[in-house]
Amino acid sequence: VLVVHPSVPARNLNEFIELARKQPDRFSFATAGSGSVTHLAAELFLDTARIKSVHVPYKGQSQAIIDVISGQIDFTIESNIAAEQFIQSQKLRPLAVMSRSRLKDYPNVPTLKELGVNDYDRYQVVFAVWYVNLTATLPELNLLVGIQATVAPLPYTLALIIGQTLLILNV
């Protein structure tokens, strides 16, 4: 979910994009760090919306969202589960969901595609990431990959080994 601090004057995504185009680099966005999933999602959004913003990387998403809630940063892209309590308490305002269809948790929040940001879902990365300790047995790894394929079948699966961690990304 793309969420903004309530002080952001845009009431919807189209107003946000219009403001960002008129004032490049006026808005800042928080991520869990350079190269993180939230960073990639935000950069993809900025590219497809043809706007610029200032990237503020953090050492994790928890501090990033705290600074958006406090108004130090203008927006972030957050999971619907993590953002839910802050949206309900009106500490954050959702402008769009990043998924291909509306979320049942936010039926009134449109998708990017509905709002005219058409290329986002063509390049969309599904942010279901499995971190598996490499001490797991092969059947356990196959089970996790199989569950992910059943939950969100996608055309490509990328597996990376980083240290002692197997990172599986569906793209």
Mean pLDDT: 76
Q: What's the story with the biggest beta sheet? A: 5 strands, mixed
Estimate what percentage of residues fall within beta strands: 15-25%
* Major β-sheet strand ordering: 3-2-4-1-5
Q: How many β strands by DSSP?
A: 8
- The helix tally amounts to 5
The CA-CA distance between the termini, in Å, is 18 Å
Classify the helix fraction into a percent range: 25-40%
User: Which structural class should the secondary elements be placed in?
Assistant: alpha/beta
Shape: globular
Report the C-alpha radius of gyration, rounded.
17 Å
SSE pattern: EHEHEHEHEEHEE
Q: Which stretches are low in confidence, meaning pLDDT under 50 for 5 or more residues running?
A: 122-157, 160-164
Explain what you see.
The protein has 171 residues and is α/β, with parallel strands linked by helices. Helices cover 32% and strands 22% of the residues. The protein has 5 helices and 8 strands, in the order βαβαβαβαββαββ. The strands form 2 sheets. The chain has a 5-stranded mixed beta sheet, sandwiched between helices. Strand 7 and strand 8 form a beta hairpin. The longest helix has 14 residues. The two termini are 18 Å apart.
